[in-house]
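Following up on my earlier message about NAP. Here are the inputs again, as you asked, copied directly from the submission form:
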Amino acid sequence: MSGRKIALVTGANKGIGYEIAAGLGALGWSVGVGARDTGRREAAVEKLRAAGADAFGVPLEVTDDASVADAARLLEERGGLDVLVNNAAVTGGPQQQPTTADPGAVWAAVETNVIGVLRVTNAVLPLLRRSASPRIVNVSSSVGSFARQADPGYQSGPISAAYSPSKSMLNALTVQYAKELSGTNVLVNAACPGYVATDLNGHSGHRTPEQGAAIAVRLATLPDGGPSGGFFR
Ligand code: NAP
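Thanks, got it. Here's what our run produced:
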């Protein structure tokens, strides 16, 4: 073992996840690039290594039990896990208005954005519990905020029966994890990266992926005794 901290970032082959991996790699951490597509994963690992990061690939489809179990095994073989960043997500399509929504698309958003987080978190929790300062960061969104969704003066993007409710549930799940894990050294928080130009929104965001990644990097590196169950942006 190298003695470096080990992190896993899901959906790290591009966008904000890639930049979270780059940010943790720049801190000297060993970073697992969780990604489902072999070519995209290897390209990201190569690029991170070229930038000096100690990156390694973790084949990961967050909706698949066997894939997630294999990822946990791979991490165990590499020495464990200190930080999990649940970043992978899908929108379920931008036009999922409630009255005409495709239930399959809504389910796809929940399956990836919520159940995927639960599946990955629980699979690697035994490894995290062995870490001195374990952290879980759930990359969420302000569009999941009930207060903001209900505020007529707040522009929270297209109406969506899929993406926004999935992030509301992720925020709630984050709080439930924090409650269960209170009294342990595992800190669990949710982060909103802001409106970031990525494939997720057709690159319409006004922030860079690197700017969007900063909040997750901060929550991944919280000191012991830091907040848990919070939502940060
Ligand atoms: P992105 O560029 O579309 O990246 C999404 C990543 O998730 C990709 O690596 C994708 O892999 C991966 N992914 C999706 N489904 C997966 C699955 N089932 N298993 C494994 N990986 C999967 O989006 P992004 O904008 O960087 O989003 C990153 C996070 O930030 C998400 O949680 C998103 O909700 C959140 N966020 C983004 C914004 C924004 O303005 N962009 C705002 C608020 C919150 P593939 O390449 O294989 O598809």
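One observation from looking it over: DSSP finds seven helices and seven strands in the chain. Hope that helps, and feel free to reply on this thread.
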